[in-house]
Design a protein that fits this description.
Layout (H helix, E strand, L loop, with lengths): L2 H11 L7 E4 L2 E2 L2 E8 L4 H15 L9 E6 L4 E6 L3 E3 L10 H20 L2 E2 L8 E5 L6 E5 L6 E2 L32 H24 L1 H8 L31 H10 L16 H7 L2
Antiparallel strand pairs: 1-3, 2-3, 3-5, 4-5, 6-8, 7-10, 8-9
Length: 285
């Protein structure tokens, strides 16, 4: 059976009235694959991911054989990817890590997102679940792959500054997230802003590994409001990761301090151009 026909079979079996998406991990002709089927409200997300993977494949070899098939029908669509036999980095929350371990990890992940940024690409959804560690079957080397690329923005294809989506999660939600539409004025400013958000999100992940109590505090925050901001504990109590790092607390805290002191607001974002990933990497030396 052809790959497209297999996806149509999964689409036919998908109950869109009951679920937004469904994930399968079938073995076909002895090879494992990752299949995702989505309903109408998720179609644009999946189509964006397909476009992103195709663009990334032009730049990064590890994405060239990643996309296997894609089928779109009137109300649903389905994606087949090469299955990656590995685990995401959220499992690291279950293990005690030394500061040396965390610094090493930070450097590795910073290099990964810097590859994107050096090619004028922002990811837009940096979090531990979107980093997969695996052993490459061709050379036996442990590698990291960034997945869930539907939020990637390619600066060369950016036509309007509002085309970049600002996502929200525990990892990259700004303490005082701007509620207006874009407060940057040019595509270049937009790129600086979202390049910074990739780094901000990564720094939050590193902070939670270094200080698990901060992560637990945010997870237990029960204050509710429309934007579900985990850094907001009351109408007046808005906290920031900047409060939980000390510039004199060692190499790692100094590096995180450099990231968090740049947190932008609607009135203050010009300095993001000065944010330097090379300097951040140097601080981790």
């Amino acid at each position: 059976m052809k790959k497209d026909d297999i996806l149509r079979k999964y689409i036919k079996e998908f109950d869109a009235s009951n679920k937004h998406s469904e994930i399968y991990k079938p073995i076909i002709n002895g090879h494992p694959y990752f299949i995702k089927v989505v309903g109408e409200n998720k179609k644009e997300h999946m189509k964006n991911e397909v476009k992103s993977i195709k663009e990334l494949a032009k730049i990064f070899p590890m994405y060239r054989d990643y996309l296997i098939a894609f089928v779109e029908e009137k109300n649903n669509c389905a994606l087949m990817l090469r299955y990656i036999d590995g685990e995401d980095l959220k499992t690291l929350f279950n293990y005690p890590l030394t500061e040396k371990d965390i610094i090493c990890l930070y450097k590795m992940l910073l290099i990964k997102i810097k590859f994107f940024h050096d090619n004028n690409i922002t990811h837009g959804d940096i979090k531990p679940q979107n980093f997969i560690s695996y052993v490459d079957e061709h050379d036996g080397i442990m590698k990291l792959k960034i997945i869930d690329t539907e939020t990637c923005v390619f600066y060369s294809k950016l036509k309007h500054i509002d085309d970049i989506k600002r996502l929200r999660s525990l990892y990259y939600y700004l303490p005082d997230n701007p509620r207006s539409t874009s407060f940057y004025k040019t595509k270049q400013e937009a790129f600086y802003y979202f390049r910074y958000l990739d780094n901000y999100s990564l720094a939050c992940f590193i902070l939670y590994l270094l200080k698990p109590d901060v992560y637990k505090m945010l997870r237990k925050n029960t204050y509710k409001e429309d934007d579900k901001n985990p850094w907001r504990f009351s109408e007046t109590d808005i906290r920031t990761p900047y409060q939980y790092v000390n510039k004199k607390g060692g190499v790692l805290e100094n590096a995180l301090h450099y990231v968090f002191k740049q947190i932008p607001t609607e009135e203050q974002y010009d300095f993001l151009e000065e944010f330097d990933e090379d300097k951040l990497f140097h601080l981790l030396e």
